Amino acid sequence: MSTIRTIAFDGDDTLWHSESYFEATHAQFRALLAPHVAGEVIDRTLIETESRNLRLFGYGVKGYVLSMIETAIELTEGRIPAADIRTLLDFGKTMLDHPVELIDGVIGVLDALGDRYRLMVITKGDLFHQETKVARSGIAERFDRIEIVAEKDEATYRRILSRVSEAPDRFLMVGNSMRSDILPVLDLGGQAVHVPYRITWAHEEAAEPRHKPPGFYAIGDIAELPGLLALIDGAAA
Ligand SMILES: [Mg+2]
């Protein structure tokens, strides 16, 4: 394998916390609907509604809020009070307004790698919210390039690599989602490091490759990345 030249990081739940806010909001949503319907039904209906709506809304908080409202209307057979719909809108505004909290160890990793590699962010979701998060993160200037995309599939990665004139075998992606950050990059002939987050949104769940393909690595904490890269580049040299 060639030595790595470009490293791209996923944003949500790789550089900064995201899913934990969805988890907290989900608990509030459950509590709001508890007088009407059982918790398991709420969970199942919400994820079904979100998955169905992704094609129309894309990823992000705004689509999530619309899916919560749709779920609430459906499960209460239209009896959800307007005041509760306002509460759901407020949940969304709180999420959008939340300060960006970096994952522990991120700054140290960027310090260690910034001089030796071209660093990028490749994040997906609502353009406006992702731009806001990048700006609030305080680390935007540490990256050579920031790409905000609607979907992270093989075609997206291929397009980005061609735009930055990088060969797949010199590209390494770091992220928490097997489905979005790891599998499409491996399919393309790139390398990928999986760093799981405490929780994974059901839609992003995918099994680890059964037979560890070349170029696939997994670490428990992003702080382990510089050490892993020293091994990868050492082996390639
Ligand atoms: Mg992520």
Account of the 3D structure:
The chain is α/β, with parallel strands linked by helices. Helices cover 49% and strands 12% of the residues. The protein contains nine helices and six strands; from the N terminus they run E-H-H-H-H-H-E-H-E-H-E-H-E-E-H. It has a six-stranded parallel sheet, sandwiched between helices. Helix 1 (19-33) packs antiparallel against helix 4 (82-97) and helix 7 crosses helix 8. The longest helix is centred in the first third of the chain and has 19 residues, at 39-57. The protein starts with 5 loop residues before the first strand and ends with a helix. The mean pLDDT is 94. The protein binds magnesium ion. Magnesium ion binds next to loops.
Structural class by secondary-structure content: alpha/beta
> What is the β-strand count?
6
| Rounded radius of gyration (Å) | 19 Å
Specify the overall morphology. Answer: elongated
| Helix and strand sequence | EHHHHHEHEHEHEEH
Helix content: 40-55%
Task: List the quaternary state of the chains.
Answer: single chain
The description of the largest β-sheet is:
6 strands, parallel
* Strand fraction: 5-15%
- What small molecules are bound in this structure? magnesium ion
Average pLDDT: 94
Distance between the termini: 9 Å
Count of helical stretches = 9
**Order of strands across the widest beta sheet?**
3-2-1-4-5-6
Low-confidence stretches: none
